[in-house]
Design a protein that fits this description.
mainly beta; Nucleoside Triphosphate Pyrophosphohydrolase; 9 strands; 4-stranded mixed β-sheet; elongated; about 140 residues; single chain; 3-stranded antiparallel β-sheet
C-alpha cells in the first residue's frame, strides 16, 4: 500500500475503522489502524454552588458504571456548541444561559482523530430529559 492510502475495515454510525499507510519522519512506511470519528462535545455544567453536573452511565466497553460529564457526538453539519447544548438538554435535562468554550482535546490520538470540545455552562435551569436508549 502506498503512502496515504486507506483500506476500509468497518464503517458504522459513529466510527470508520481503516488501515492507513503513513510515512514516518525517518522515511519508513507503516500500516496503521485508524479510527475516523466526527468529534464530540462535553459540558462542564456548574450550578449556583459551583457543583459539577455528572451523569452515571453504564459503559459496556469497560463493563462498569462510571460518572461522566454530559457529552455527545457531533452530528453531520452541526457546530460543537450546538452539540453541547443539545446533549446537556437531552442527557441532563438542563439548559444554560451562559456558555463559554474552554478548549478542545484529542483523547486518543494514537489511533483516532476524534476531537472533543469542552464548554462551561452556567445559570442552569431544569427542562426535563429526553435521553437516547443507550443513555
Amino acid at each position: 500500500m502506498a503512502d496515504g492510502q486507506r483500506t476500509g475495515i468497518y464503517r458504522g454510525t459513529v466510527v470508520d475503522l481503516g488501515l492507513e499507510t503513513a510515512r514516518l519522519p525517518n522515511g519508513k512506511l507503516l500500516s496503521l489502524e485508524i479510527v475516523r470519528h466526527p468529534g464530540g462535545a462535553a459540558i462542564l455544567a456548574l450550578d449556583q454552588q459551583n457543583r459539577v453536573c455528572l451523569l452515571r452511565q453504564y459503559r459496556h466497553s469497560i463493563g462498569k458504571w462510571i460518572w461522566e460529564l454530559p457529552a455527545g457526538v457531533i452530528e453531520k453539519g452541526e457546530q460543537p456548541i450546538a452539540t453541547a447544548k443539545r446533549e446537556l438538554r437531552e442527557e441532563a435535562g438542563l439548559e444554560a444561559d451562559e456558555w463559554q468554550p474552554l478548549f478542545s482535546i484529542l483523547p486518543t490520538p494514537g489511533f483516532c482523530n476524534e476531537e472533543l470540545f469542552l464548554y462551561r455552562a452556567r445559570h442552569l435551569r431544569a427542562v426535563g430529559t429526553t435521553p437516547n436508549a443507550d443513555e
